[in-house]
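fyi for ur records
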Amino acid sequence: MNATLTVEGLKVAIGAANVLRGVSLEVQPGEVRGLVGESGAGKSMLGRAVLGLLPANATITSGQIAFEGRDLLAMTETERRGLLGRRIALIPQDPMTSLNPVKRIGAQIGNLLRHHLGLPKRAALTRAAELLTEVAIREPERVLALYPHEISGGMRQRVLIAMAFACDPALVIADEPTTALDVTVQRQVLQLVERLRLRHGSAILFVTHDLGVVAKICRSMSVLHAGRVLEEGETADVLVRPRHAYTRALLAATPRADRPADALRPVPPALIEQLWSEAHRLDRAGEARPA
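which gave:
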């Protein structure tokens, strides 16, 4: 069976600056793979490359991206767009700005269902109400008639999750979907995503900077820094027996309930300097391999 997503040696540049340096990873059917690293590591850029939504000034300079065995980079723009929302979906980072502020919730979900599934207007609204029920939104018919500013941030994120899973996608890219939410709502959202994953059988590439989130929901993980995968493996193995110094430093800097706050140690500046020196050396050599 083909992996749902295969990325091999992917390099992306913005102008003269490399932002992804030979990234390789796989996401198997039904798997949740965490993509973890600091801000600027290249996590969201990788997700954008898979979706075909890179910034206009970004260029894929080498590498491959395959979805269910099909070469995404060889597809026409029309073919690629046909997959988005239908077979490959996105849960965006910011629920406050990701919905259209001048369209009602029902219209936004309904348009998605009509476009991808060909449902008539009335059937699309009926299905939209069912989707809101799936994500535990009460009084779905009332919510469908509201505008985004009339519901809370947590409810907006639930709407976005409902839209992501609406067409039974094979792959969902979750781009830090809990970042803008408080801790209680974060937990609810993670439980919801896991429940929908099991129901729909989707694979998920879960982008986050939070190792606690990775431990809760991801079966496997990849650790990024400066556009390189420094370590990857089963989540339990990586978190318990990290091999790379950077992974160990991230764990040491992560708050935990079983140790005092003064035990936290920031990532050593000397290590960051070393990693950037390695990245620049690889740039000059025209190579990009894990350290």
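The radius of gyration is 20 Å. thats all i got for now
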